[in-house]
Amino acid sequence: MNTRFILCLAVFAIAPLSDAAALKIHFISGAREYKSEESLKNFIPWLEKHYDVKCSVSWGHDGIKELPDLNELKEADLLFVFSRRMKLVESQMKIIRTHWVKGKPVVGVRTASHAFQKADNEVFDRQIMGGNYQGHFGDGPVKVTNSGKHPILKGVGKITSDKLYKAGPLAKSVTVLQQGDIGTDKHAVSWINNWKGLRTFYTSLGVPKDFENENFRRMLANAIFWTVEKKSFPEN
Which residues does residue 133 pair with via DSSP β-bridges, in sequence order? Predict the structure, then answer.
């Protein structure tokens, strides 16, 4: 009887610890042109299937003033941004700013370089992510080349894309991980930044076709675990 009681206690003790160990990620989606909602509704289940993560999402769109479920971000370990030119009310921007002010990591995809209002983008793009968004080129094949052997590039093979952003001079704290080449121009497409000890990752890749590429998905997964400073990445 005593043995059964002890086993029951052990089960109840382990269960909440297992749930607590899952990495909590909050996604902000809102880029109609690049179909962020469609891409993330496929990516998030894939991520949860292959990795020990628990995801919440605020689904929005360009120009939205108030996101649903944004309070979930307060409990998240990491913020994942794939949105474009939102015009969020100050109370919601405060929640978002608080995340990185607390030193919590951020992963940004494609339009994250201009995710919010102009004033907030100046901080988010230039400082937090270390970027310098300068517009984009027209349609055309983009050859993506890995630079070095950073952990985020582990297991990441060939990636080709359809669109290239123009990146101006990046922050001095940035380390470029990938270059994009359209034949006439080359620009950095993926990089990491360290802002006051906070780790961030940004990639200007992220058109719908990219999310179908297993190497792109793997890179995003690696970036998520690197930014939260996991010493080893789980295999997918």
Answer: 167
Within a domain: 121: yes
Residue 182 in domain = no
Question: Whose structure tokens read 């101006």?
Answer: 168
Q: Does residue 233 lie within any of the structural domains?
A: no
Which residues on neighbouring strands pair with residue 203, listed in sequence order?
Answer: 109, 190
Query: pTM of the predicted model, to two decimals?
Result: 0.90
CA 123 centroid distance within chain: 17
Q: By the 8 A CB rule, do 55 and 44 touch?
A: yes
Residue 159 contacts residue 215 (beta carbons within 8 Å): yes
Strand extents, DSSP E, 116-174: 133-136, 142-146, 159-161, 165-167
User: pLDDT for 110-160, tens place per residue?
Assistant: 999 999 999 999 999 999 999 999 988 877 799 999 998 899 999 999 999
Q: How far apart are the first and last CA of the chain?
A: 42
CATH at residue 210: 3.40.50
